[in-house]
Design goal:
three-stranded mixed β-sheet; alpha+beta; 4 helices; two-stranded antiparallel ribbon; Aminopeptidase
């Protein structure tokens, strides 16, 4: 895998929204930001509750790769961090009213 920010394909508690994955991939490609992906089998997060409460919410778990995660001396590549900030800002800038409506539409085939 290329270095760069990433997202989880799935984890023990939730699956990312396909629409969010598409938005993330398109944005990363447009900004020439390399994007990693990872299946994590033993991890869980609060997004699982968000996906199943009050009609659901689209979610995706973004990650900056870190060596020695959850330790007092985790190590990351600063470029990965900076690219994640750029990617996240770019994704947020694409979220107009219509895009949010599309992301929140869970109709079959949408």
């Amino acid at each position: 895998m290329e270095p760069g920010p990433g997202y989880f394909l799935y984890d023990a508690s939730d699956l990312p929204s396909r629409k969010m994955v598409q938005l993330l991939r398109q944005t990363a490609a447009a900004k020439n930001i390399p994007l990693q992906y990872d299946p994590v089998t033993g991890y869980g997060d609060d997004a699982a509750a968000m996906q199943s409460t009050g009609g659901g919410a689209s979610s995706i778990n973004l990650v900056v790769p870190v060596r020695y995660t959850h330790a007092h001396n985790g190590i990351m590549n600063r470029k990965d961090f900076d690219q994640m900030v750029d990617l996240l800002v770019s994704v947020l800038q694409r979220l107009d009213e219509q895009k949010v409506k599309t992301l929140r539409d869970f109709s079959p085939g949408q």
